[in-house]
Amino acid sequence: MKKIMITLLGSIWIICILGISACSSQRSYTGEQSLYDGAPACLIGTLFAEIEKNPILEILYERSYMDMAAAASRQEEGPDVMRSIIDRFGRFGYAAVDSRNQIDMSGAEQVMEFGRLAEAGEAAAITMIVVSYEGSFTQYDCRTQKGAVDIVRRYFRYESGTPGHIQNKSTDSFPADTWQYTEEGYLLFSGTYFANENYVLTLSEGTERTALRVAPLDETCRELNRKYIFPLVGYGGNNIFLTDWNEKDFGELDLYDVYDICYRLKNGEPHAYTADDSLTVGAVYNIPQEEFENVIQSYFPIDCETLREDAAYNAEKMIYEYRPRGFYENDYAEIPYPEVTDYQENTDGTITLNVNAVYPYEGSSRAFSHSVTLRLFVTAGFNIFPMKSRFHKTAVMPGGMQSGLQKRSGKLFMGKTSAKTVRTTQETGSEMI
Hints:
Elements: E1 6-7, H1 41-44, H2 55-73, H3 80-91, E2 95-98, H4 108-119, E3 124-131, E4 136-145, E5 148-158, E6 166-175, E7 178-181, E8 186-193, H5 196-202, E9 206-213, H6 219-229, E10 245-246, H7 255-267, E11 285-288, H8 289-297, H9 304-310, E12 313-314, E13 319-322, H10 327-330, E14 337-345, E15 351-359, E16 364-374, E17 378-379, E18 382-383, E19 386-392, H11 410-413, E20 423-424, E21 431-432
Parallel strand pairs: 1-7, 2-3
Antiparallel strand pairs: 3-4, 4-5, 5-6, 7-8, 8-9, 10-19, 11-13, 11-21, 12-13, 14-15, 15-16, 16-19, 17-18, 20-21
């Protein structure tokens, strides 16, 4: 097996030695005990690591899928359903977390103990479950011996009309190239594996890059992240959190990115001003002054004079010219996601959020960080928009996101677009040049 270096930042963690080396009896849980019949908690998560068909997990997977489907039919939103699913896996001795790392991991102490034993070169095993919001499950069966970690990854999906419903759609095994616990509370691991389908398409091995939050995160931080940072804005296709700006100096902030987000807030869906299907054509739209200003000013603290100076405003026609970000600015599949890790309530009534960009693709739980200051006010039922953002540059930055840092200066494309037939966008009545 491949020898790897395992980093354990013990000073950051409070390690509870439960799961693997020191087995404790599983407590009784009404209505579910029959699934494991009182077996020790550590055995539930490890004895089945080499068994392809695990009846306990299959029952838990199916029950979890049914819970998600029922919640979807009731149009329930929020983290409560996923939290109950993660907690259930924990009651049966499994380390489990959701695929977006939005719920505290169950069985986190087992993961920490596994890492301690791996670092010490001892033998250990653990099963970790990642639950997706689409109703699928990824199961990582991990073994360590003499400092090396080997992983079997199984992907399960619910399929109606099939025996047992829960089907194992793929199984891949690989030695971990990296296995690291970070100061930010994440387990990061990676490896390569051979998959027939992947090799036929790309003539290369498959790559696993996974980031799982092990340390718990303050629920207020999670709620602030859900309401004001992600998925409202995020890092894809905009520079709102990737440059320094404030209410008095917008700097390199792209007001067209602000318009995109404010429009979605106001109307509940994206606008129709999209990039042209042809890569050789640069679409430019004429948006009526009243529409453009009303959308932005509903959520963003900017006056008409400043807006007209900074954006591509045509006073004669009373329109704003709008150029969508091109495909080259949006076409990167792997981007970090934001995570609020701390916050401060300021004396002036504002709140400042400290945010880390978690970037599994590059094996980083803090690719870069930024702070966002919000003045919370209510407009049309929403509490939103940042009044200040400060970006803290670091060495790890997605190549495709560099274009997101660039400001679209509307004045550069006003009157400089090649002549094309003007057509009306039916959804808005605006014109596209």
